[in-house]
Specification:
166 residues; alpha+beta; 4-stranded antiparallel sheet; globular
């Protein structure tokens, strides 16, 4: 399962960084570019904060948190025996590493770089990127697997019968 996790993480990171490179090189900063009318637009922004631009000004703390998430996923990955959980952690790892790459290597400097966001949906209050989509998707899958009682080994946990065993 480590290979599947790694392939997903590398694919997410590569897609995210390629998209951001194309955005930086081809889109004007701050101006909307319609993709599907007003429903979907690309709007290149630099985000120094987290989701919804929260914690702006604390970019170095967000960098440390992202690095911690990346390290925790890599450490935890050896326990995974399920393709679904490998996908969850691959999406988290790829997304976290995508945004961490921005924080480490983009302006204004190492550990304080701004994340490139560019996807804007009508009526949605935030502009986001591929890494954010991967992280959000991983959380949806995490909730589904948790509610279904699927363990890291892929087996479903069975609940004890009411009243317990005699």
């Amino acid at each position: 399962m480590l290979l599947l996790l790694a392939l997903i993480a590398v694919a997410v990171w590569g897609l995210d960084q390629t998209a951001k490179l194309l955005v930086v090189e081809n889109l004007p900063l701050g101006r909307p570019v319609p993709v599907i009318g007003e429903l979907l637009q690309f709007r290149f922004v630099k985000n120094s904060g987290a989701a919804f631009s929260l914690a702006s000004g604390f970019t170095w703390i967000l960098s440390i948190l992202a690095a911690g998430i990346v390290a925790a996923v890599i450490w935890f990955a050896r326990r995974i025996r399920s393709k679904a959980w490998a996908a969850v952690f691959g999406l988290i790892l790829g997304g976290a590493f995508g945004n961490l790459t921005d924080r480490l290597f983009r302006e204004p400097g190492f550990g304080t770089g701004h994340v490139i966001d560019f996807i804007q949906l009508i009526y949605f209050p935030a502009i986001f990127n591929i890494a954010d989509i991967a992280i959000t998707s991983s959380m949806v899958l995490f909730v589904i697997l948790s509610f279904r009682g699927v363990g890291l080994d892929g087996r479903r946990r069975h609940k004890e019968p009411e009243g317990g065993a005699a």
